[in-house]
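Sample A.
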Amino acid sequence: MSYKSGFISIIGRPNAGKSTLLNAILKEKIAITSPKAQTTRNNICGILTLADVQYVFIDTPGIHKPKHELGKTLNKSAYSALSEADVIYWISDITQEFGSGDAFLLERIKASELPCFLILNKVDLLAKQECMEKLIEWGERYDFCEIFPISALHHDNVDSLLQTTKTYLKEGPKYYPDDMISDHGESFRIAELIREKVLYKTEEEVPHSVAVVIERKEETETACDIQALIIVERSSQKGILIGKQGDMIRSIRLSAQKELKALLHKKVNLELFVRVENNWRNRSNKLQQFGYSELKKDE
C-alpha cells in the first residue's frame, strides 16, 4: 500500500475560522481561538497521521492591511506558508460579503497555481437557500478545485474534506513521528493559552497590544509551577489588565490555570506579571524577543 503525505496551508481573512478548523481536524485544541481579529500570530503546524496518509496543516495568521511591524510580520508568515503548500485551504466566513481583502487573496491564489479548496465556513448561521446562493456566487469567481461548505465549530463536513484532500496528495514520507500533533512545544501552547484568556476578557486596543512570555516553568510528576509575563504597550493597558483590586488579572489567571491543568494533567500554580514595553509591535528586536519572526527592513 502506497503512503501519501503533504502540506496544506490554511489561509484566509482574520476571524474566518482557520484555527477552529484545525482544532476540529485534529480533535484537539492546538491553536487558540477567540472572536478577536489576529488571534493567530504564528504559523502553527498541526499534524494528522493515519495508517496511509500524513496531513501537515499550516494554520496562518489572518491576512489583513497591517498597521504595525507586527502586522507586516504576520502577513509575511502567511505568505511563506502559501508558497510551501501542496494544497491550499482558503477558508472564508460565508456570512460575510466578498471584499477587497478577498480579492487580494484571490490574486495570490491565482499566482500560486496550486490546488485550492474554497472552504465556506459558518454555514450553520445561514438558511439553506442562502448557502446555495453563496456557493454559486463564489463558484463564479474562480475555478476552485473543490468547494466545501462546512461548520468548523460543529465539525460538519470535516471528514469529507479530509477524504477529498487525500486524493490531491502525492506519495511521500512521514515528515513527523506518529504521536506528534504540532511543531510547537509545550511552553508555546501555555503562552498562547494565557493570551487567549486575555483576548476573551479584555476589549478595544488591549487584546492586540498583548504578548505573553513564559519566564519560568518547573515540573514534578504531580505539579507544574509557571511564571508568565504579559507585555502591554501603555501604562493604561497595564491598569486595565490588573483591574480594580487585581480582579482582572486574577480572573485571567484562574481561567488559564484551569485549562492548563486539563492540558498538562497535573496541578498548576500560575503566577502572572504585567510589564509595559512602549510600542513593542513596531520594534523588530521586541518582535523577535517575544517569539515573532523578525521582519527584514526591505520587506
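Sample B.
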Amino acid sequence: MSNKNLIGTGVAIVTPFDKKGRVDTDSLKTIVKHLHNGKVEYIVVLGTTGESVTLTKDEKKVVIETIIKTNANKLPLVLGIGGNNTQEVTDTISKTDLKPFEAILSVAPYYNKPNQEGYYQHYKAVSKSTKKDIILYNVPGRTGSNVTAETQVRIAKDFKNIVATKEASGNMEQIMKVIKNKPKDFMVISGDDNLTLPIIAAGGDGVISVVAQAFPHDYSEMVRLARQYKMKEAQKLHYALIDITDQLFADGNPGGIKYALHLLKKCDPYVRLPLCEPNDKVKQSLAHLIKLYGK
C-alpha cells in the first residue's frame, strides 16, 4: 500500500544556527510554524538541507525534539538516516525511536560508488532493519553515482516497506522509466524543485522541496493543482518561482535557502564549514527576486 501521507509537498527543513554556530531552536520553531501556516503536507528532518552530516549526535537529538514538540502532531515527519556504511545505517535505524516518524528518507550510499547490485543489497539491509516505511533517495550530483531505473524498480518490487523514491537525478527519461515500470503503489517523489511540475505531469506523486520552505503556500498549492491536472494554474505558480529556485542552488544548498529565509526574517543565514554562505552576486539576486515576488 502506498503511504498517502507522503503525497504532495514535503519540505527538507534547515537547521538554523546562531552567530556562534549553535543550533538556533527558536528559529527552528519559527520555521516549523511557517510550514504549518503554508499548508505543506509533511516535513523531512535531518536531510541534506538540514546539514545533518555536520551535526553532533546531541545536536541531532535537540533538532528532532524541537521539531517534534513544535509540530505537535500537526504534520507527518520523515527522518533522514543514510550513509555509505550499510552496517552503521542499519544500526542507527534499529537504535532510533522511530515512533514519531511516518517514514525514513535514506540516501543512496555516496563516495564508495557501489555497483547496482551493491545498491540493491544496501537497500535490502535497510529494509530488513525496520518495519517503518522507507524512501529511497537517488541524488547522483551528491553521491557520485546513479541508482538506475531498473535497480529502483527491482528494489520497489522486492521490499514492500520501501514505498517511494526521491528522484533527484535530473534525468526525466530515467524518472519516466521508474514511473512506467514501478509497482502500482510505489511513489515517485521529485527531488528537484524545478522538475516537480513535469514529474507530476508524467505520473509522479509530489516533491521533497527546498523552495517550499521559503514559499510553502504557493509551492504546495502548485503541487496540488498539478496533481489535479489543473496545469494552467499550476504553471503560473511554477514559473513565478522558477528564477528564485535557480538562485537557491546557484552557489550551494542550503546556503541559498538559508539566505532566503534570512531575507524573510525566519532565521540567520549561517551555515557550517565546509559550507559557506552564497556569494554576493547570488545574495543580491535573491534579494531582488524575493522583493519582486512580494509585490
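B remarks: The chain has 13 helices and eight strands. The chain has a mean pLDDT of 97.
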